[in-house]
Automatic annotation (TrEMBL), chain A:
Transmembrane segments: none annotated. SUPFAM superfamilies: P-loop containing nucleoside triphosphate hydrolases. Keywords: ATP-binding, Helicase, Hydrolase, Nucleotide-binding. GO terms for cellular component: nucleus. One of its GO terms (molecular function) is ATP binding. It comes from hydrocarbon metagenome. This is Atp-dependent rna helicase, eif-4a family.
Amino acid sequence: MPAREMIAHLSGSPRHRPYIVHIEALPPRPPRYGTLLRPLPEAIEAYLARKGIRLYTHQCEAVDRLRRNEDIIITTSTASGKTLAFNLPVFERLFEDPAATALYLYPTKALANDQQKAIRELEAFTGIDAGTAVYDGDTPQHRRAAIRERARLVISNPYEMHQILPWHPKWGRFLSGLSYIVIDEAHRYRGVFGSHIAGMIRRLRRICGYYGSNPVFILSTATIANPAEFARRLTGREAAWVGDDGSPHGTKHFVLYNPFADRAEARPAHLETKDLFVACVRQGCRTLCFTASRRMAEVVALGAKDGLRAAGRADQVAAYRAGYLPQERRAIEDGLKEGPLAGVVSTNALELGIDIGSLDGVIISGYPGTMISVWQQAGRAGRQAAESFAILVAFSNPLDQYFMRHPQAFFARPHEHAVIDTENPCILSGHLLCAAAELPLDPGRDAAYFGSDLLAMADSLQAHHLIRKSTRGWVYAGRGRAVDAVRLDALSSETFRIVCNGRLLETMDRRQAYREAHPGALLLHQGETYAVADMDPDQRIIRVKPTDADYHTRPITQVDVTVEGEREQKEMGGGAISLGDVLVSERTVGYRILKGSESVGAEPLDLPPILFRTTALWFTVPEEAECLVRSKGLDLAGGLHAVEHAAIAVMPFYVLCDRRDIGGLSAPCHPWTGRPTIFVYDGYEGGIGLSGKAYDLLPAILCMTHDLVGGCPCEAGCPACIHSPKCGNNNQPLDKAAAFILLDALARACPHSDR
Amino acid sequence: MPGPFDGIGRQWRDRLDQVREYGIVRDGSVFRTGLCTSFVFRSEFERARALERELVEAYRGVSLEDALCGSELDTGEGTCYLIESHDALEMRGQDREAVKTAILADLTLIYGIGQQTQERLKRRGYRTIADLTRHPRYRKEAERLLAQIESGDTAGLMRWIGRWHPASHPLVFLTCRFHAVEDFVFLDIETLGLFSRPIILFGVARISGRRIGVQQYLIRDIPEEQAALAATLAHLEGVDAALVTFNGRAFDLPYVRERLAYYGMPSRLALPHFDVLHFSRRVWKERFSDCRLVTLERGLFGIERSGDVPSQMVPEFYEAYLRSGNPGPLVPVVEHNRQDVITLARLFARLMEEWHACP
């Protein structure tokens, strides 16, 4: 059934109609074709002709600019042919210059493999021999030398590059010829993670310079608010923005769907998601359903199988998520593209550009946290001029509900800025250490890559004997490999293996294992339920058994912040701000047993906590404000929680980071201060300098927070003020009135306040 | 005076100081040793830490030049510190004819000849490869091998034999007898870690008559590494030089290459290379529990080291010196390296005895 009819079907159905709060028809756009300034080599033209491809305006612009050796950042929509836009000039160069090479970086191994298939096809058809190869952690040892010595197009990921750079002498041929570096899904590299990638790219550019090459950068991203600035910060070079999308798309019917529209008739969001998904598949729409968690993906897929069993179509749907083994994922991707699958329920793992063919519609179960993700996910539906639909199913949390009440605010909401800080000393100094281990660091030459603070930082590293100055520059002399000490992200490398009767079912990291695969937990895998029999935290093995239990489990977690040392403190009116070292502990203390959404019991657990040491700032609220909140009968905990959210929302304006990089905790009475306290901490082991910077700027941050909350016309809080898209407590409790009283006192108390 | 980024340096130092590239294993826990690629036993570790403390105490206020008798060496790449010593050592000399005879007797070195063909050919009177120059089918290849032998290119000849035999085959080893004892460069390096860190000490030994002379190029600070590399390179770039190492195929040679590339110092390093570890495994695998250098040294020469630093702990001893300027921790490192390179030469001489009459 075409998308338009599907939406008509839903809005006509008494079952679903009451929950549809808004339908926005996003208008269609006709294609605009362009012509290149000069034709491509014959073999490539023949490939395009054979495939029946005419180039869109943005593709022509990309090709023409790249031929002039200009860096570009392409931000056109999903399925607009971004990949072709850079593959064409890359292959043209490989064809014209037998020594030329190209490097493609993807954020995941799955994407790299997907891309390899597409490029090999181009290679086979055109006869241009690029020796394309994926080089990552999965590349077998015995194939590595041949790839280093022969491949002209290498596909890898940033983590692998970070490890490869110290071995650059083995890559001399490849690096000497390096003409293009493609960074796909570049919007993934923002916040602290992006700042690390920016450091790694500067090291790569420096080494290229040593081998005499000066590659052109090609960035491909989802739509973001600041493409040119983002490209400049990520690569350190100016890039032309290619954003004028020439590809066509049909009308997209965007439905806001609220299972809680009528409190009396409210239904759990996952059940409603499942019913919508079943309805779409039943009507013959190829549908992709995005869920907020791995577990939800399994639950929805399982329910959908049941719903479709009577029609004999249970096998046409599947769940998809990280943790599945690669071959399992590959089978699902292929099944959706050309095989028997009509619908897949996925976590955001399918948000990236893995080729899964054309879809009729997308269901987004719960606001995914950013508008960048909303449009990425919605963009997976609809190829060429075909109509498509997207349905956002709201959760009960205040943020989702706000969007349901204010559809215009949702559709007008801008894409987020992709923030990168190239001057964060914690990050930059780490990459200086790595660089010094790759080639002697020459301050004259290398300030061009690492900025003017290089000398001062190098002095500090030298004073601690980590680098030493030689006639050729600073030489790394620290203990351990620099690249091992500098982690690009905070992801845990500890992998737990989940085993059923000796067969490896899937893998997950420690944090996830403690939350989802603790003893007693029920685990879903491809719709089958497994009970965790035992967990060995040292050997990192979890044994599970199949079960047909009809209940499910939900972990009870507890986060604590313990102050280990206070480094600085200053007075702020009747309260105090402190900066110090803290221990964040996250413990799964037990789990609830639920039947449907009803809790039927709880069990305690004795798992070790997940601990990380980091830097935090904390501040207490003035006593009279606390009294005022209490005397008015407002909720102090809700007020503190709201201030914490709003302050964290404001922080990226002052401290260049993504809000995901910061954590927060508020307590009506924290043991360290004995007062109502708000903590803001760096979400990275060892701290990354964010809280330290915020400590210096806190008065300004609190003034802006005050203005934000005070100036927001909403009544009880909204995503523009106190709702957080990453709140671990479902944005509860929140009390906007109490928050405003607290902020009023805090902002007034700020010594630097202008008010 | 602390600069604006003082905290940064301290933070990285704290983080890096926690890095240890080896595991510490409970004494006698043989099972656990299989799990770590690099380990020391708890007692070794404790002994070494105590040794370090004693040395720091004993050498307080002593200069490096007084602690380690040597001289400053000026190379084209700056200075480093040279420590020289001598020892007695006997080694069989050059014997081109004996090697040639052994190689020529092995017809399987010719493409297309396996064990059975060899026996058949020998029965038909083709006793040596020289005889094969009369054979219609194998003539060309036999002539090429003869030319290879005459060319004096040992590295090429080793590669040729290695194509038809394992790299640890006695015949591969035997090519060393093409060389005069003076050609051998015995090399052992001490480093600040496993790759992409400086080499702090190059131990080079050369034989002259019945003596072995050890030249150790020590860097007194990291910037001297280039000079020590250049001094070592001078040995390796000699016209007839042949390199002898213990596990150098996997470690010392790639490490030296990597450091040369790091500094942009061009070199080819295509000299013949005898890795004694591989030959030792072939000969003594059955006799000893493992083929670590110290195990062979104890078993074959009855040497018990005292006051030694485990190799894995050399980086932290050197760091202790670098940070304090106290030369105490360097003393056992230099002795350890000297002992390693002499034992290496002795093992090489012993292998010549084992295989002098083969195959």
